[in-house]
## 1
Amino acid sequence: DPALLAEGEKVFKKCAACHKVGDNAKNGTGPLLNGIVNRTVGTVEGFKYSKPMADAGAGGMVWDAANLDAYLADPKGFMPKNKMAFAGLKKAGERAAVIAYLATFGD
Ligand code: HEM
């Protein structure tokens, strides 16, 4: 759905100070997000994660759409003490749009 992807690209502006996607994306304040949908949590090479984020991945947690939705709705509530300094996206439609947008970027 092109309208959903266009909305997702717009919503991603709220993330882009810390996260990059696309060709030549690099880690910054946050890890690059190419291939994030359905990737094991906390496994972008070269990024230094918080302990809760690293532990979640070591425990086998995957960023499927449901986990991404819950994390983006309330980052600190979903994963206490993770280090993403972002209040979250209150609107379910914005979360769905940005997740659909992220899914267009493979590894
Ligand atoms: C981690 C998405 C906004 C900083 C993550 C992860 C995702 C994500 C999926 C987990 C990455 C992984 O497991 O490899 C998003 C989205 C955003 C957003 C979609 C906007 C809607 C931000 C902002 C900042 C930020 C604005 C900086 C102020 C971080 C940091 C981590 C992280 C530092 C690592 C957390 C840790 O190790 O505990 N983000 N993020 N993010 N994000 Fe964001």
## 2
Amino acid sequence: MTTSTPMGFGRMHRKEDARFIRGRGQYVDDVQLPGMLHGAILRSPHAHARILSVDTSAAEALPGVKAVITGETLAGLGLAWMPTLSKDVQAVLATDKVRFQGQEVAFVVAEDRYIARDALELIEVDYEPLPSVIDARTALAEAAPVIRDDLDGKKDNHIFDWEAGDRAHTEAIFERAEVRVSQDMLYPRVHPAPLETCGALADFDKVTGKLTVWCPTQAPHAHRTLYAMVAGLPEHKIRVISPDIGGGFGGKVGIYPGYVCAIVGSIVTGKPVKWMEDRSENLMSTAFARDYHMTGEIAATQDGRVQAIRVKVLADHGAFNGTAQPTKFPAGFFHVFSGSYDIETAHCEVTGVYSNKAPGGVAYACSFRITEAVYLVERLMDVLAYELGMDPAELRMKNLLRADQFPYTSPTGWEYDSGDYPRTLALAMEMAGYDKLRAEQAERRANGDRRLMGIGLSFFTEAVGAGPRKHMDILGLGMADGAELRVHPTGKAVLRVSCQSQGQGHETTFAQIVAEELGISPDDVDVVHGDTDQTPFGLGTYGSRSTPVSGAAAAMVTRKVRDRAKLVASAMLEVAPDDLEWTKGRWSVKGDPKHGATIQEIALASHGAVELPEGVEGHLDATCVYNPPNLTYPFGAYICVVDVDPDTGQVDVRRFIAVDDCGVRINPMIVEGQIHGGLADGIGMALMQLMAFDEDGNHLGASFMDYLLPTAVECPSWELGETVTPSPHHPIGAKGVGESATVGSPAAVVNAVLDALKPYGIRHADMPLTPSNVWRAIQGRPIRT
Ligand code: MCN
Ligand code: CUM
């Protein structure tokens, strides 16, 4: 493996590593300001209860306490409720009722963290407990308690009904289909669980009227605009700084009540106020993911041609609809559920409901619900293979879209930009030695081997890089990204972008994009991000949109600089611009390559060493706003091999083969790291993770003792392969990859476990396939979710 610095794309170690491996990263909790105070949040012990009274007098009397803020205090400022990303409202601090266990009730500001926490114990809240809705399937029952009685005239727990596709056509195909299979499945509630929890440091300067907020947000500019809209503060007087982030995975997209409390705390006390949540607070109250109850159906021919697919979803959105996705799509991009297959028609219906659980939704490397969609179709394909007695690989090969069908418009109207799916699946099967694995499995079954071997496949297509302004916005903000590039007189460059790395290595890969386009070393390019005062506007990092959108902006802005450099070079070399040609890093005279100027020489000259032609401004810099023409559609084929112990239900992942196609790879090493992480996520969700509640709404997984994160022990040595199908509309042919493996891998793991359990006649079992759930499935008992 070469790790020397390339001039553009290629493997190189992250520039960030220099500070990260020396412990020199700067996270929100590392930021210390003079006179800084500390906040702590009092949370509800009940899932659903009316608040009768809140008495803060004892807490206020505790020495060291500077302020106690309640819902009532905030109501006086018009800040007790804040808008969510899905046009709902969410309580900042509860005023009328608490609606999930762990909901924010009061905020204490004190001289240090310990006093703040101690003061929480002195706040007396009188609650009247109410019955709660924990299982979404009961949310719409006549007798269900109404959770959102704060909403005018609200008499039930219904949020939205939404459908996509062609119902009539789909029904017609189902009616005459030779084979129909149907399967209920749950994608359980899980949590992104980043190692760094959420927090904020707010500093309001009364003299200048400027508010500075340090916060690990994935979308600094969007946060600033929302603060301006909600608090009525002038946008240019707000500065959001997102320093190093210890993992986001979607959990740091939204604005949390604690952020608003820290800001109000600073305004009230006139001092900087820092609030950091602990692990349990993070798991109980910040953005959950999934929680989709799905019924999927496939119509096919007897020989395994899939013709139609339809699905009904009951979506549990928790107590407030805070789901993050482009505004038009209440179920995110779920309607790509026809997956990677050539299916004539499809239809889906999604109903969203409130429950007494934490709000959020979508988060956890989700590509806006494509995770659920891929899991659904990939599980259904295996269910169909089971019923037809067909090999799941053969069934997939038979139905995959062919290369000559691209660009391909899906039955719900998505235009897949490019792909060669059979090639990718064939490579994965070859790497796995698929036929040999099947032979080994047959032999072991024939020999009555106690340990059960399973082979699971999945094929996924994602839609990432939100998104074209005419189709997508979040609360009215179109999803285009800005970029600015300046080349200093000595030829070193600084790129300013709006996206926000949480561990994806943008400081390296974005420098590589400039390096590739300008022919300089990535070491000579500084990438500035994460500070709204220093960077152009853009919507941030989620939905694997950084490379598709900001990455394209970075390439385009560099090309603009290169064009300016050409005009300068033409003056330097005294030839017409049309007579110049670009070879990496240098403009030279066509047919006379020795006669030329390097980008460094041009940079210096652009500052005045040559007389520039009329209309050429000089200096090498440019700005650009990139509005993507389409999403990018990365894809991949995954094969998982497991061994299951039927006596204990323990699953060992023996091998995992992943062939990903994300178009042109900027830094293959970083891409592989992204895939490794996502595959581990897949094992976590498939085998270990579940946000569980008892029937009263008590959270059963609010620590890493119960909510398990996969480690090297549970993960095999990943076997990665790649194919490269460039995106035709992206300037460098790249597609996003940050969520691919998390999206694609859970189905492969679950399919492998169920393949192992096939001799027991088990067709489906829900995640997580913990030892106890696998054992229960073998005993024919219900799975616990
Ligand atoms: N890349 C590349 N070549 C490509 C595609 C991507 O070299 N063809 C590089 C990119 O330049 C970038 C990284 O791979 O450095 C991921 O790029 P991209 O797919 O554009 O995704 P984003 O940068 O937008 O990251 C977001 C994505 C999401 S949405 C989640 S969730 C997630 C993920 O990234 N959260 C992560 N990966 C994560 N990785 C870490 N370490 N921490 C998180 O919180
Ligand atoms: Cu949906 S998790 Mo990522 O898009 O930040």
